[in-house]
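The instructor's notes for this session suggest beginning with a concrete chain rather than abstract definitions. Hand out the sequence below and ask the class to guess, before any prediction is shown, which regions might be ordered.
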Amino acid sequence: MPEQDTAVDAAIEGELKLLDPEVRSSPERVDALLHPEFFEFGASGRVWDRAAIIDALTEEGDAGAPAATVSAMKAVEIAPGTVHLTFDTDHNGRRAHRSSLWRRTDRGWRLYFHQGTLFPPDGD
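After discussion, reveal the predicted structure:
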């Protein structure tokens, strides 16, 4: 398998894990997927740092809850060791365009940056 495909596959796998309610309910599992310098521009407009997002995800976490529906996922390795993902999510009618940057580290692929932008249920 070409190295780019491996990088893209690893980033997609990590992103899907972060969307899994079972993973989101575990601080240790979320911690393992986030880069030490992680930050996020949330769909709410809030800027999240690593510690705050781990707390928020695990506080809301319900391992039995349904996962968000993911669509239109696209991925490209934009530089060696860096993958950019874009995709849409729908979680109980709350829809968002999403963008993530994944970086390869000595501990594997980890999410470095994420941004979500809400969009109306009837539009793109």
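Then share the key points. Residues 3-118 form a domain with the Nuclear Transport Factor 2; Chain: A, fold (CATH 3.10.450.50). The mean pLDDT is 91.
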